[in-house]
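Friendly challenge for the regulars: who can give me the structure tokens for this chain first? No prize, just bragging rights.
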Amino acid sequence: MSDPAAQAGLAGAAGPASPQVRELVLITGISGSGKSVALHALEDAGYFCVDNLPPELLREYMALAHPRYTERVAIAVDVRTARSLPGLVPLIDELRAEGVTIRPLFLDASTDTLVRRFSETRRPHPLSQPEVHGAGQHALIEAIELERLMLAELREVSTIIDTSTLRPAGLRRHVRDLVAATTNRLTLVFESFAFKYGVPLDADYVFDVRVLPNPYYLRELRPLSGRDAPVAQFLGDQPESGELLGQIETFIRRWLPALATDQRGYVTVAIGCTGGQPRSVYMVEQLGLRFADHGAVVVRHRELDANDWAPRRQSDSPSACRGATAPSCRCSHWASCCSPVGCCSSRCSRRVTST
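First reply, four minutes later:
Bragging rights claimed.
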């Protein structure tokens, strides 16, 4: 899909002038995946942000940017500038060779999720042209798949963020965590997830920890997650846990130097169990501690984080709670919770055990 004219236009924009911007976060991805939310998160974090900048103007903008705004810059690019997209990857390589730190982030989501989001907002997809693709949902799905094809090359050189299960607040936090952890070193992202909800799209490596004993089958541990001390104690006492942790750590440390020289900014290691609550959460927390010496580490729990902003369920109502004492819960369910162990939501990542 290479367009020589487009590449020449990008390479020649603003001539050979050295760029003034020294750090750039380039946000792109599939329409409806949350690029605007990510850009706003970076703006709140102190980045100077430009939305929908034509790629052929990228070099010129970086050369002419005011010194006040050259510390940290974030730019969003989407498929509406389709003609210039083929030259964007070579331009990224050129700017890196000139000493610019560029971190491309590619936001993606499952097709079903994207269709639902477009249906809810009733906004047209940028590539939904009735005279070309027909009408209705079939046209939307075709447009999404066409966009994936057009952005495939850019996706290959970017850090992928799967927003399928993220609400806006969760995405903002995830983006802030990524950029906050970014140094000159490769950033390690450890993410827990539930296999029953699907493997994360942004995972570079996936480890299955369902072989470990499941605390869910112990009544006193069932409402807790791997962040809670009783679950951590239970799993820590299992020989299998230590052995599996050691093997995962050995694998990552063995290949970390090679990954760091592969033009990568981030590597996502996904740890999965059945429900994404006790075992995978515990393992991710332990890996985060074991790799603390690496410096650039992000710990993320997909199912716990997703629940922080999920609509309140019927089971979270006062009538569903069996406790009678005031809660020690500090999460979004506080007002409707009367459980003596805190939040009555078994998936709450901010549950605090009463003392």
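Residues 1-17, 131-137, 308-355 have pLDDT under 50 and may be disordered. The first strand starts at residue 23 and ends at 29. Your move, everyone else.
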